[in-house]
Amino acid sequence: MIPRILLKMVAVLVALAVCLTATLVAALAEFTNSNFDGITIGQPFTITWAGATSGVTLKLKTGPVDDQSLVLTIASKLKCSTLQFI
User: Fold this and answer.
1) How far apart are CA 35 and CA 59, in angstroms?
2) Residues 8, 41: contact at Cβ < 8 Å?
3) Distance between terminal CA atoms of the chain?
């Protein structure tokens, strides 16, 4: 389980235009939701993806697409296709 304070921090970072990307293990998956506007601390938000054939790692990154820095790893080895933040 992901600590609530960590989820709140993630929501704030995303709301401040931090780039959220998925690093995929042995698969090419794509986000199935792309609207990250209106994320509010304490309100549920679900990230969804499709196409993964093995575990997925979600990482929060910042910076331009060609020069990103890791902020934190949100979750790894996910076998599902959604992750909800509260």
Assistant:
1) 17
2) yes
3) 12
In the chain, the amino acid numbered 7 is L
Q: Where are the beta strands (DSSP E) in 1-86?
A: 20-24, 30-31, 45-50, 56-62, 69-78, 82-85
- Which whole-number Å values give the CA distances from 73 to 2, 6, 7, in the listed order? 11, 11, 11
pLDDT tens digits, one per residue of 41-79: 888 888 888 888 888 888 888 888 889 899 888 888 888
CA atoms within 13 A on the CB side of 34: 4
pTM here? 0.61
Question: Would you mind telling me the total number of residues written for the chain in this entry?
Answer: 86
